[in-house]
TrEMBL record:
Name of one Pfam family that matches: DUF2461
Lineage: Bacteria, Pseudomonadati, Pseudomonadota, Alphaproteobacteria, Hyphomicrobiales
InterPro entries: CHP02453 (IPR012808), UCP028451 (IPR015996)
Native source species: Bauldia litoralis
Name by which UniProt lists this protein: TIGR02453 family protein
PANTHER family, sorted: CHROMOSOME 12, WHOLE GENOME SHOTGUN SEQUENCE (PTHR36452), DUF2461 DOMAIN-CONTAINING PROTEIN (PTHR36452:SF1)
Amino acid sequence: MDTDLLAPQLDKDLPRFLAELSTNNTKDWFDAHRARYQRCYVEPALALITGLAEPLGRLAPPLTAVPKVNGSLRRINRDVRFSKDKRPYSAMLHLIFFTGDHANRGPGVHVVVGPDHFGVGAGHWAFEPAQLEAYRAAMTTKAGAKELTAAIGKAEAIGCVADEPQLARLPRGYTAEEPVATMLRRKGVVVRTHDQPIPDELFGPDAVPFLMTRIKALMPLVAWLDRTVYG
């Protein structure tokens, strides 16, 4: 038996499945291809998450990997209750690895694979009030702004960029010059890329080390947020 095939990796049929789902985004089509979904989407993704769990747990801070649907593998079903876009499924594989006890309560790392693109990202989109206060306090110090800038720079080295600030103006009571002014207009910090070609490594025995290299480049941001905003 080829031992390379035993290493955690994604299925080569995944991009094709996602492309077909994108153009046939209906429950009838999905139900007819449910076995394929399990074979090329769910099972390889859960195996990959399991393979990543140990090295992720050795990072500082450790990242949690939960090998189940709606754990580190996000559900393919879209929540369309409050969306004008009523397509029932997301034509994308989405993995999340997180600090703390819940994916939505602290910074984490995301991996996405679409029909023709790949991306990674890190951070937390929306701080709770206490975390937002801690973040803004850090931005008023030279050390805090310098450390965050350096962490974002590490992410930029692998093609990630910071999302645009959510606020058009500085929050009330704050004055600052650039680049701190831009930082203060954020209500969360996220760096990401989603437009890279799908790397061949994801479909071979080097999938885990390939992803770990990229995740490690994002960890300075995760560590800064965990220490400064959530500590």
